[in-house]
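Milestone 3.1: sequence recovery, worked example.
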């Protein structure tokens, strides 16, 4: 067997899985998006752009998704980075495993149960009641964009922590010592050494969380109370309730295109930033 044949043999299972689990479903959604809704719902074959012309009807869902998903990603990154830095750089090795386990403990419980817990915390008997006890009245937290933002940051925070932690844990500590020996202050060392070398982990964590948030529907449904809904909620309504599969496919395919464009631009910016720092370090 030649090397080329051996390479094809190794790639074929992954390629087959990619085609069956990704390409074919996307192809079906693309075809359905040009169809029409049947009299009893579902899909009727056709070739029309009517479904794409109706996309403004779901503008609110796209707006909420495109605002809260990036905000949730940024907020999760800002919280996860100090935590990952503390675990990777400043924590005694004998405590790292225990603390990492504590980070993933929330994943041992269903996101449904954790979201209901936040309904109680943000509801009238939770934080608003505590605020009333200290004289702050009329605060409404549940069923607001803020509640959804809290829920998505809490739900996806561990997925942001681990890529950043891995990137920081692999950091050569001798670089930090060399920077200190050369007279750099701790903050300067962080900006010039630690942060640039951890960018791949930050990029991976942000991309992972952002992609998942773009398709989120459970947290907005529970903590948004039908007032703050994502595209995922619109898709659930279109496919399962109104049974408008053609319009739902158009919405889904548009969301996929937005995600592909956003992720492509993001990865190009990260690659350009990384290559630019490499050029500066070489000079």
């Amino acid at each position: 067997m030649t090397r080329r044949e051996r390479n094809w043999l190794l790639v074929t299972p992954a390629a087959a899985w990619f085609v069956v689990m990704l390409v074919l479903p996307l192809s079906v959604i693309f075809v359905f998006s040009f169809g029409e809704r049947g009299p009893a719902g579902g899909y009727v074959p056709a070739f029309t752009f009517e479904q794409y012309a109706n996309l403004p009807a779901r503008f609110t869902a796209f707006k909420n998704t495109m605002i809260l998903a990036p905000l949730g990603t940024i907020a999760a990154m800002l919280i996860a980075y100090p935590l990952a830095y503390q675990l990777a750089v400043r924590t005694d090795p004998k405590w790292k495993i225990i603390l990492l386990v504590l980070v993933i403990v929330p994943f041992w419980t269903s996101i449904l149960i954790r979201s209901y817990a936040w309904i109680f915390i943000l509801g009238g008997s939770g934080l608003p009641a505590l605020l009333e006890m200290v004289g702050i009245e009329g605060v409404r937290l549940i069923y607001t964009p803020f509640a959804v933002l809290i829920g998505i940051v809490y739900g996806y925070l561990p997925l942001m922590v681990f890529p950043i932690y891995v990137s920081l844990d692999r950091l050569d500590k001798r670089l930090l010592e060399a920077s200190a020996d050369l007279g750099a202050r701790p903050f300067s060392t962080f900006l010039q050494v630690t942060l640039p070398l951890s960018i791949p982990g930050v990029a991976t964590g942000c991309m992972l969380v952002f992609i998942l948030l773009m398709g989120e529907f459970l947290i907005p449904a529970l903590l948004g109370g039908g007032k703050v809904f994502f595209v995922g909620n619109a898709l659930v309504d279109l496919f399962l309730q109104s049974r408008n599969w053609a319009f739902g496919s158009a919405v889904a395919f548009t969301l996929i295109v937005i995600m592909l464009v956003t992720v492509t631009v993001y990865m190009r910016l990260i690659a350009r930033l990384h290559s630019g720092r490499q050029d500066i370090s070489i000079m």
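The longest helix spans residues 245-282. Residues 26-282 form a domain with the MetI-like fold fold (CATH 1.10.3720.10).
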